[in-house]
Amino acid sequence: MDTEKLSSKIAMNEIVNVNTPDFDIDPEKCLGVYDTDPCTIVIMGATGDLTVRKLIPALFNLYLNKGLPKRLQIVGCGRTELDDQQFRKKMENALMALDGKNRSKWLLFKDTIHYFSVDYDNLDSFIDLAEFLKNLDQKHKTQGNRIFYLALPPSLYQTVAQTIGQTGLAHENVNNNGWARIVIEKPFGRDLKTAVHLDQGLRKFFQEHQIFRIDHYLAKETVQNILMFRFANAIFEPIWNRRYIDHITITATETLGVEHRAGYYEQAGVIRDMFQNHMMQLLALTAMEPTSRFEANQVRDEKIKIFRSLRPFPVENLHDYLILGQYGAGTIDGNPVPAYRDEPNVNAKSLTPTFATMKAFIDNWRWQNVPFVLTSGKRLAQKRTEIAIQFKEVPHSIFRQTLGEAIVANRLILGIYPEEKVTLTFQTKQPGAKVCLRPVTMNFYYNQNYSGPILDAYEKVLIDCMLGDQTLFWRQDSVERSWAFLTPVLEECEDCHNREEMLHIYDAGSWGSNFSNIK
Ligand code: NDP
């Protein structure tokens, strides 16, 4: 193409792009026709809540959207004695209203699901499982590729991973193309020591590239969008630093209480449940440096640098940096709800925090002295997840004499829930003869101009496991650095003499704001 034609093409594009963004994107590429290997997904703990509510619906949805490999088998395992038909019926019930079209698809899909009862402490039962899987591989040509998904209480991760390993099922057969992957759900330990111990147990039989530590938050489209937003637009990166940003708030609140998970939550509390994983990941995505390519280990290398740069928490001065709360009785959506201590299976004198606000700093060039305020809690006024970038005020206001007031600084919000959106607030002139400012908000809704399917977080996680793409999964070094930051905080909170005083009781359905006075 000669230069004249080229310049006229550029000019045309410029004109076209003013009003109608010309998305030169292959839709197939984005919707995902995944090049996944044939495989068998073995779910341990398949009679449980996670399998019924999340995993099987996600797999079935992927099947409906042609997201699964053609040769896929699913094996549910558990102590409960069930046959294939009973297990399939249980899963079918969980999918609830299967209408005509989906029902006929389910009848085809359900034949890929099997059940095998196991005894986790008994090696022989796993030897039988290995034989069963081998036969299944041969019959369905799944090439010996296997994902072991531990949908089990975390206390069983080590035992089960080791039993899988002892039967040779963790062994990867490079020549025959047979891979073996293990998936575990948070929590990854309950402090630094136990996280290291868990990893040592897993690493006896599995290598790091075989271990998929899930944080399903990371698989949400809008969470991934943080990196696209930051690194696919030239205009934000130059101002994404201490010179222009005053502080950043990361919020993940919910209206739900502890529900049926009191046994786990009583031992965990909000810091282990939310901060050690989801909040730290949102922090890392917001603060990390760009990678040279969007590739699993490069992304994870940049995240670990953020965790390494976290300023050690000033435990001697805890009150200025951390506020803990626990919900009392209150009202949610007009309905009375009990206090945390009155929930089933919760200790009537429990000191477990259900709310925390924490101020953290990242000691590096970009973020020196910019506070990152992280807030998460249960039974609050609204379910909301967002990252708010609060910019600094203008250095000097030329309107001060006329307006006699400070100008409200710009604010950028990356909304994840309830609305997946990006909003930017800035000042404009109020129409009229007088010089008057008014803040306005520019909104982008994530689903805008898009009508295709959006992958549920578990669907994305399962696809990435099948593809062997670890970008969205925790690497052990990050798990450890994150625990290294939080363990001293937990120790200080749990061992201190004034533990009860530290815990503010807030009304369910409020924002807990009567005591939350950090920034
Ligand atoms: P469940 O408590 O429902 O347990 C899953 C299965 O594990 C049970 O059906 C049971 O199967 C088996 N099991 C339970 N206790 C024991 C035990 N003491 N010894 C041996 N087997 C046992 O767990 P979930 O399905 O809720 O969660 C699984 C994992 O996923 C957990 O690590 C959880 O933290 C994590 N997770 C769960 C989420 C959810 O929404 N449920 C969300 C995020 C993470 P059987 O008796 O048939 O052997």
Shape: globular
- Note the total helix count: 15
pLDDT averaged residue by residue: 89
- In whole angstroms, the N-to-C terminal distance is 58 Å
Number of strands: 16
Which class best fits the helix and strand makeup?
Answer: alpha/beta
Strand content: 15-25%
**Uncertain residue ranges:** 1-23
Q: Helix fraction? A: 25-40%
CA-based gyration radius: 26 Å
Main β sheet profile: 10 strands, mixed
- List all distinct small molecules, including ions and cofactors, that are bound in this structure: NADPH dihydro-nicotinamide-adenine-dinucleotide phosphate
Describe the overall structure.
With 519 residues, the chain is α/β, with parallel strands linked by helices. Helices cover 36% and strands 21% of the residues. It has 15 helices and 16 strands. The chain has helices at 3-19, 27-31, 49-64, 84-94, 100-109, 123-140, 157-166, 192-203, 221-231, 262-287, 296-309, 400-403, 457-467, 476-495, 499-502; strands at 39-44, 72-78, 113-117, 146-150, 180-185, 211-214, 245-253, 322-332, 335-337, 355-360, 372-377, 384-391, 411-417, 421-429, 437-445, 503-508. The strands form two sheets. Strands 7, 8, 9, 10, 11, 12, 13, 14, 15 and 16 form a ten-stranded mixed beta sheet that branches. It has a six-stranded parallel beta sheet with strand order 3-2-1-4-5-6, with helices on both faces. A hairpin with a 3-residue loop joins strand 13 and strand 14. Helix 7 (157-166) packs parallel to helix 8 (192-203). The longest helix is centred in the middle third of the chain and has 26 residues, at 262-287. The termini are far apart. 36% of the residues are buried. The model is unreliable at 1-23 (pLDDT under 50). The structure holds NADPH dihydro-nicotinamide-adenine-dinucleotide phosphate. NADPH dihydro-nicotinamide-adenine-dinucleotide phosphate is lined by residues 45, 47-50, 53, 78-80, 120, 151-154, 156, 185.
